[in-house]
Amino acid sequence: MDVFYPIRLFADWVTVGLLGITDPYWGSVVNFFIYDTVKIGLLLVLINYVMAVVRYYLPTERARDIIGGRKWYGFEYILAALLGVITPFCSCSSIPLFVGFVGAGIPLGVTFTFLVASPLINEASLFIFPAVFGFKMTAVYIALGVAVSVAVGLIIQRLKPEGNVNPAFLKFQTAKADIKKNGGKPVPFGKRAVTWWRDGMTVTKEVFPYALLGVGLGALIHGFVPRQFVESVLNGGRWWAVPTAVILGTPLYANSVSVVPVMEALVGKGVDLGTALAFMTATVTLSVPGLLILKKAISWKLLLAFVVSTAVGIVGMGYFFNYLWPIFA
Q1: Contact partners, residue 109, CB within 8 Å, separation at least 6
Q2: What is the reported pTM?
């Protein structure tokens, strides 16, 4: 069941019923912009409010001590990847939760593992891939997706990323500080709720303008970049087709369900499976709209490290399915 279906109906109504836009290109642009703006805006408000509550009772230092001060032997990265599997958001939709994790003091390597896994191992790979490509290919894809997500997180953490996060996402009221300000007495629930709302909206206001910019760019590309162009460039089975697919997929933005038919069409027209997969995963994981939103939360240095490490992982997956998968299939 698509929980965002009412938003889709609203976008359809505004585009056609209210604005009367019937041109297929501009209609696609406007519909895409309305749908994703409303969806991401609601997710930002909801997730940032919930994470404000988490930060209030579990301040940054405490969360960092729990995860960073114990010997998890890397298992925390696997848990983050599995959380990404069961929260199959697109790249833009997963960023609010990523920001909440950062604000809660979760190590950045772990949060980046989640950020990669959530769109990479998505509802399409879980439910549509088996019907289109078979269970064996789906299982291998998911395993590789988890491995890439964990590898990206470990690489980010090795770079010692502390100090590369927007300080606005790290300074919030906590329960201990609130009680101290209240003379040692418990703070009424109403006042706590207002504090949570204020802290959540602080993050939302910081990120939302970048979300609008990113979604606007994604909408224009979504409406005016023809699929035939992508098909013509990627067809032919050349060695550079996989990195080219990643480069072509990165400026685009689409959720996994909508891009799977494109991927299936590419394979049907002779594009190698790994090349088509690289295009799809770059589209849902490294979209420029998502990166624009993410830039508000982290430095250029950290953003570049995320893009390069993720792109290398996607290219590796593409080559695996092009050259090694036929041996095992």
Answers
A1: 77, 153, 154, 155, 156, 157, 158, 161
A2: 0.67
Q: Which residue has the tokens 């504090």?
A: 195
End-to-end CA distance of the chain: 32
The tokens describing 280, both together, are 């799809």
Three state DSSP letters for 79-106: HHHHHHHHCCCCHHHHHHHHHHHHHCCC
Q: Which amino acid is at 15?
A: T
What are the backbone dihedrals phi and psi of residue 23, each rounded to the nearest 5 degrees, phi first?
-60, 125
List the beta bridge partners of residue 298: 165
Q: Which residue has the tokens 């729990």?
A: 66
Tokens representing 100?
């909440």
Please name which of 267, 309, 264, 262 lies closest in space to residue 285, comparing C-alpha atoms: 309
pLDDT in tens, 196-240: 888 778 767 766 776 677 677 667 766 776 666 666 777 666 788
* Pair 155, 302: CB distance under 8 Å: no
Helix spans in the chain (H): 5-12, 24-57, 60-68, 75-86, 91-103, 108-120, 123, 129-133, 135-158, 175-181, 189-224, 227-234, 241-249, 256-268, 273-285, 288-295, 300-319, 325-328
Instruction: Name the phi and psi angles at 103, rounded to 5.
Output: -65, -25
- Residues sharing a CB contact under 8 Å with residue 290, sequence separation 6 or more, in sequence order: 90, 91, 92, 95, 214, 253
Report d(CA 73, CA 23) in Å as an integer.
Answer: 55
Residues 6+ apart with CB under 8 A from 285: 91, 116, 119, 120, 310, 314
**Residue at 259: amino acid letter:** V
* pLDDT band with cut points at 50, 70 and 90 for residue 117: confident
The tokens describing 40, both together, are 């991401």
- Identity at 37, one-letter amino acid code: T
User: Token digits for 62?
Assistant: 């405490």
Q: Of 301, 307, 97, 115, which is closest to residue 207 (Cα–Cα)? A: 97
Q: Which two tokens stand for residue 54?
A: 């988490």
